[in-house]
Amino acid sequence: MLGKFSEQIQINAPVSEVWNLYGTNKFPNFVVENLPHIVEKVELIEGNGGSGTLVKVSLPGNPPYKEKFVLVDDEKRVKEVEIVEGGFLDLGFNFYGIKFEVIEKDKNSSIIKIIIDFETKDIEKIQFTIGNFQALVAILKASKDYLEK
Q1: Catalytic pick from 66, 68, 79, 99?
Q2: Staple 77 to which of 9, 37, 98, 102, CB 3.0 to 4.6 Å?
Q3: pLDDT band at 113 (very low <50, low <70, confident <90, very high)
Q4: In the β-sheet with 93-106, what is the strand arrangement from edge to edge?
């Protein structure tokens, strides 16, 4: 079964400031520092934050998993991340990816859109994605608060 969740939020900040957070290595550090109850630690394994970067993510109470940045497009302001080891793959998912898109609304405001795409054979596994989606929405809200200060 293929599935998808998406959400977007408007931020009163220029698109360049928003992408400077989401499109760089600042984003994992931001999440760990501001939402340690969601993400405990992100370790850079390989890369510089661009396409091909590999990170190890540790969540409270769960074994770590690895994510690969499959696309980081500074021109289109899009970052696509895929779990490549552990995490949802260990729970029976065939694919689990997250896409962040930063869209310019006007000179002083932006929209951040997140999309989770997944594939699983077991429909009961979808409940796990809902919890992760809620965590990503909390991250969106925290970044909005941070960028609007």
Answers
A1: 79
A2: 102
A3: very high
A4: 2-11, 109-120, 93-106, 78-85, 65-73, 54-58, 41-46
Q: Which long-range contacts (CB under 8 A, 24 or more apart) does 133-142 make?
A: 133/5, 133/7, 135/38, 136/7, 136/98, 137/7, 138/35, 138/38, 139/31, 139/35, 139/38, 140/7, 140/9, 140/112, 140/114, 141/9, 142/30, 142/31, 142/34, 142/35
Query: H-type helices in 5-149, by residue range?
Result: 15-22, 26-34, 126-147
Average pLDDT over residues 113-125: 89
Chain centre to alpha carbon of residue 105: 21
21-30, 39-48, 79-88, 120-129: range with lowest mean pLDDT: 120-129
7, two tokens? 């959400």
Mark whether 79 is an active-site residue.
yes
Tens of pLDDT along 33-74? 999 999 999 999 999 889 999 999 999 999 999 999 999 999
Gap between the terminal Cα atoms of the chain: 41
Tokens matching residue 93: 């998912």
pTM given for the model:
0.91
10 within 8 A of 111, measured Cβ to Cβ: yes
